[in-house]
Amino acid sequence: MIDLADQKVQTYNRGLDGYHAGKTRICDIDGKNGILSYRGIPIQELANNASFEETVALVLNGELPDVHELEAVSGTLKQWRNVPEQAIAVLDHLPEQSHPLAQFRTAMSVAACLIPEAEDVSLEAQKRRPLRILSWTSQLAAASIRHLKGVPYIEPDSRLGFSSNFLYQVLGRIPELEECRAFEVSLVVQAEHTIHAAALAALTTYSTGADLGSAVLAGMGALSGTLHGGANQTAFQMIQKIGRPEKAKSWVQKKLDEKYRFPGFGHRIYKTHDPRATALMPFAENLMEKKGETVLWETFLAVKEEIETALGSRGIYANIDSVTGLVYYPLGLPVAAFPIPFCIAIQTGWMAHCLEYTGGKMIEPGAYYITS
Ligand code: ACO
After folding, report:
1. Is 30 helix (H, G, I), strand (E, B) or coil?
2. Which residue's CA is the nearest one to ligand 1's atom 20?
């Protein structure tokens, strides 16, 4: 037994707060100043200029692609759009009331059994997987959302890029340019976020010698919680429930008295504005106003103002999960499906971290045994 009083023994914080799981070249987060960069490029710059395909290449390969590299990435993503039928068919056998993210994860699990060279866990084989997984992920995400809506799967359109094809497969129509860009920016700013809880779940799985598909599935499970990626659904439902900007003040005050944990607010690392939220807000505002959702948008602004005024001194500000729903809702995505696009985007980072983890050392921290 380890003696906790022994000064040589490493201590720990609840939730491993303040600990780092390793070194990385993929992403840097300055939580004090609210800066997030992928491979040295601030996400605001990527939100202004980069496609999701470019972001994927940057996160996975280390640099923004040139024209030929981009063509290769886009081509491979398109080439792998034919997801196995069994993975889509499994959706019909799942309980209707199960969460859409759980249904999506189950379909992914079936696909992971069917992915080529599933048993080959050599680094070379693992490196061939990220674009296949991302492409199948997008197909199965669209299939899961259509299943939730009770409408049949639509085949992909090879003329369309990653984001516009996803929206086409979900909505059954080619999205307008503004819709597509707003959605794409949501993917770009959520593509990577260092070793967060879900990334650690993925990395831990990969470190055991498991394949990248299993790592992604582990990440999906961890992301689903309402403290993590599930918060975009609950954050939007909170705004919907409040309903009008003039109700924000009294509602927030009442909830502050109840010590309520506001979904979509607060973050382990950011103690100021979340740069992902800042980058996405203009796109959300534009779409919400275009679709006549001004009251809901103003409700969000009023709630944000009230919460940040009350809790900003404790470092609690709106996080990305308070904003993504305000892009997905005017696009017509069902509220219960909001965590799904986040899950598509962030897999990019999970896979990059797994492939960066070349140490070959299994992650296995252990715990202090106590008797009371
Ligand atoms: N509303 C009210 N109070 C909050 C909130 C919030 N959203 N977030 C943190 N706090 C308070 C806690 O109650 C706690 O107060 P106490 O010290 O008086 O007990 C204090 O701030 C610290 O909270 P912890 O949970 O210890 O801090 P942690 O760094 O683990 O919190 C977390 C991060 C889990 C994201 C938290 O802010 C939260 O629960 N937010 C709401 C859920 C959410 O939006 N999750 C998505 C985060 S972004 C992402 O994962 C993609």
Report:
1. strand
2. 314
Convert the pLDDT of each residue in 313-350 to its tens digit: 999 999 999 999 999 999 999 999 999 999 999 999 99
Cα angle: 54, vertex 55, 61; to 5 degrees: 85
Ligand 1 atom nearest residue 15's Cα: 30
Distance (Å, whole) CA 84 – CA 133: 12
For residue 3, is pLDDT > 70?
no
Q: What span, in angstroms and rounded, lies between the C-alpha atoms of 65 and 53? A: 9
Which residue type, as a one-letter code, is found at position 315? G
| Cβ-contact 45, 190 below 8 angstroms | no
Atom of ligand 1 at shortest distance to CA of 190? Answer: 51
The answer for residues whose C-beta is within 8 angstroms of residue 371's C-beta and 6 or more apart is none
**Residues identified as active-site:** 228, 267, 321
Q: For ligand 1, atom 14, which residue shows the shortest CA distance?
A: 261
> At residue 31, what is the residue type?
G
List CB contacts of 46: < 8 A, sequence separation 6 or more. 38, 54, 55, 58, 188, 189
pTM for this model (two decimals): 0.96
Q: Is the CB of 231 under 6 A from ligand 1?
A: yes
Cα dihedral 298, 286, 45, 68 in deg (nearest 10): 150
CA of 315 to the centre of ligand 1 (A): 10
Angle at alpha carbon of residue 327, lines to 230 and 134, rounded to 5°: 65
Q: How far is the CA of 47 from the centre of ligand 1 (A)?
A: 26
CA-to-CA distance for 273 and 263, rounded, in angstroms?
Answer: 15
**347 neighbors 134 (Cβ within 8 angstroms):** yes
